[in-house]
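Revision sheet: structure tokens.
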Amino acid sequence: MAENPASKIMHLKEQGLKLKVQPSGRDNLLHHKFCLIDENHPKDSKIFFGTLNLTLQGMTSNFDAIIFTNNVQIVQKYRDEFEFLWSSFKSV
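Predicted:
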């Protein structure tokens, strides 16, 4: 039996992860694709962002653009964006 996205989310929640989703009915949608790495350790923090979908298909078959950087100003801008999104979404 194939898992649907909701069951995958619940599986992650059962593993103790804090998850949030965008409230339904929002008109303005920007499809963010970014990943902060070690963002709580400014000296070591990094980010990647771009068109990449973090799926098997996206990682092995698609032709995507991605930027990986440890630039402090860029990391901070995306950290601020993450905090804004996190505070505006609802807990699962």
